[in-house]
UniProtKB/TrEMBL annotation:
<dbReference type="InterPro" id="IPR008881">
    <property type="entry name" value="Trigger_fac_ribosome-bd_bac"/>
</dbReference>
<dbReference type="GO" id="GO:0003755">
    <property type="term" value="F:peptidyl-prolyl cis-trans isomerase activity"/>
</dbReference>
<dbReference type="GO" id="GO:0015031">
    <property type="term" value="P:protein transport"/>
</dbReference>
<comment type="function">
    <text>Involved in protein export. Acts as a chaperone by maintaining the newly synthesized protein in an open conformation. Functions as a peptidyl-prolyl cis-trans isomerase.</text>
</comment>
<dbReference type="InterPro" id="IPR036611">
    <property type="entry name" value="Trigger_fac_ribosome-bd_sf"/>
</dbReference>
<keyword id="KW-0963">Cytoplasm</keyword>
<dbReference type="InterPro" id="IPR008880">
    <property type="entry name" value="Trigger_fac_C"/>
</dbReference>
<keyword id="KW-0132">Cell division</keyword>
<protein>
    <recommendedName>
        <fullName>Trigger factor</fullName>
        <ecNumber>5.2.1.8</ecNumber>
    </recommendedName>
</protein>
<keyword id="KW-0697">Rotamase</keyword>
<dbReference type="GO" id="GO:0005737">
    <property type="term" value="C:cytoplasm"/>
</dbReference>
<dbReference type="InterPro" id="IPR037041">
    <property type="entry name" value="Trigger_fac_C_sf"/>
</dbReference>
<dbReference type="InterPro" id="IPR005215">
    <property type="entry name" value="Trig_fac"/>
</dbReference>
<dbReference type="Pfam" id="PF05697">
    <property type="entry name" value="Trigger_N"/>
</dbReference>
<keyword id="KW-0143">Chaperone</keyword>
<dbReference type="GO" id="GO:0051083">
    <property type="term" value="P:'de novo' cotranslational protein folding"/>
</dbReference>
<dbReference type="GO" id="GO:0044183">
    <property type="term" value="F:protein folding chaperone"/>
</dbReference>
Length: 449
């Protein structure tokens, strides 16, 4: 094998590889010898087929198989001998000229091909003990617990049948059939659907038009689906619902006491309060984790500046950009509506893609150097948790991940990242900063607005 480097531009490398015809022919002869004891040809006893006859019959197919295997082995040897750490699978270009290909397969010419690769950059890791991070922590107040309990009570408020017209706050049970231009549409039909008037849980305008109905009434409700409606085929369109009212109920009184707590599966009101407090604390902790991790990644990004494989960045950008365009289309918005231009947005998301790739490489390097690993048991537990999110379909979800290595890798990757983050936070200077609930959620709420 002869290897000549033809390009060394940044992280890109290209090589011209020559595999001698004599070497390929020797491999083909070995393969034909193996076939001699395997094939059965009319007129020949097993194992007695002349090699020359086998070569006439199977020579071309055997040489094609030998070439494929030889190229794979040569590429592996090239990467190993030159100590290359590949960012992506190599791009191999074999001869395209038909006459040249024929001469190679016939064993008359050497095989000459090119291989292009992108390599991972050498990463000089910074001193993680120099990283200083503030950890915002919000305590759960009694007022927050009481507020959550009030919402729970309101959601579980009893209703009792009433005579007369429905008012805001009442619950009506309805059947309805929705149409567009006189044609029923998918998802527009419902039976025995309960609607609390004023809850804003239905399409805007639907609940308001049911105020004043009584049991047995029929009413036509005309609404327009929001521009950002999840079902894109319905977004922004007008629909007419033929509604039949089956029942009208008025909200009853409720008392926050032990009986109410027991109706929710708790032993007492105090036990319910502790459960609510723990859940709020868990939510606060999730936001704290997000902010600490974001600060850590910002610090890592500032400490590590190096060129990243362009194809990895391109792939990351294409994924991000496709999602941006899909979101804009779903919301029927433009870049102008977002206060920017497509060119400026592309530049911004290009920088985001580069940052993501760079941080991914840094985290991978840290994990490798410090032997941070995710066990198969940890991956299995994560898949089980995902499967539990689909009641009744657990087996199908489990089978999907078990049979799909790429999907399984998508489970392992975030587990690995969180382990590396935990490792770094042990080394960094992390200072707890007590904050209010409003301060803790402020940035996230602003981004969501």
């Amino acid at each position: 094998m002869q290897v000549t480097e033809t390009q060394a531009d940044g992280l890109k490398r290209a090589y011209r590889v020559v595999l001698p015809a004599s070497e390929l022919d020797a491999k083909a002869q070995t393969r034909l010898t193996e076939l001699k004891n395997q094939v059965q040809l009319k007129g020949f006893r097993p194992g007695k087929v002349p090699l020359a006859h086998l070569k006439r019959m199977y020579g071309k197919s055997v040489m094609a198989e030998v070439i494929e295997q030889a190229v794979t082995e040569a590429n592996g040897k090239l990467v190993e001998e030159r100590g290359l750490k590949l960012a992506l699978q190599p791009r191999v270009e074999l001869p395209q000229d038909e006459a040249e290909v024929r001469r190679v397969i016939d064993g008359a010419d050497d095989l000459t091909y090119t291989i292009e690769v992108e390599v991972l950059p050498k990463i000089e890791l910074g001193n993680f003990k120099d990283i200083a991070i503030e950890k915002p922590v919000a305590e759960v107040s009694d007022a927050q617990v009481d507020e959550t309990l009030a919402r729970l009570a309101d959601a579980n408020r009893p209703f009792a049948e009433k005579a007369g017209a429905a008012e805001t706050g009442d619950r009506v049970t309805v059947d309805f059939v929705g149409t567009m231009d006189g044609v029923a549409f998918e998802g527009g039909t419902g039976e025995g659907i309960q609607v609390v008037l004023g809850s804003n849980s239905f399409i805007p305008g639907f609940e308001e038009q049911l105020v004043g109905v009584s049991a047995g009434d029929a009413r036509t409700v005309t609404v327009t689906f929001p521009e950002a409606y999840a079902a894109r085929e319905l977004a922004g369109k007008e629909a007419v619902f033929a509604v039949t009212v089956k029942l009208v109920e008025a909200p009853g009184a409720f008392t926050l006491d032990d009986d109410f707590a027991k109706s929710l599966g708790q032993d007492s009101l105090d036990a319910l309060k502790e459960q609510v407090r723990a859940r709020i604390a868990q939510e606060h902790g999730g936001v704290t984790r997000q902010k600490v991790k974001r600060a850590l990644l910002d610090a890592l990004d500032g400490m590590h500046q190096f060129d990243v494989p362009p194809t990895l960045v391109s792939q990351e950008f294409e994924g991000v950009w496709a999602q941006v365009q899909q979101d804009l289309e779903a919301q029927k918005r433009t870049f102008a509506d977002e206060g920017t231009t497509e060119e400026a947005a592309r530049a911004d998301y290009q920088r985001i893609a580069e940052r993501r790739v760079r941080l991914g490489l840094v985290l991978a390097e840290i994990g490798e150097r410090n032997n941070i690993q995710v066990s198969d048991d940890e991956v299995t537990r994560a898949v089980v948790e995902r499967a539990r999110q689909f009641p009744g379909q657990e087996q199908q979800v489990w089978d999907y991940y078990r049979r799909n290595p790429q999907a399984m890798a998508s489970v392992r990757a975030p587990l690995f990242e969180e382990k590396v983050v935990d490792f770094l936070l042990e080394l960094a200077d992390v200072t707890v900063k007590p904050v209010s609930r409003e301060e803790l959620y402020k940035e996230d709420e602003e981004k969501a607005a």
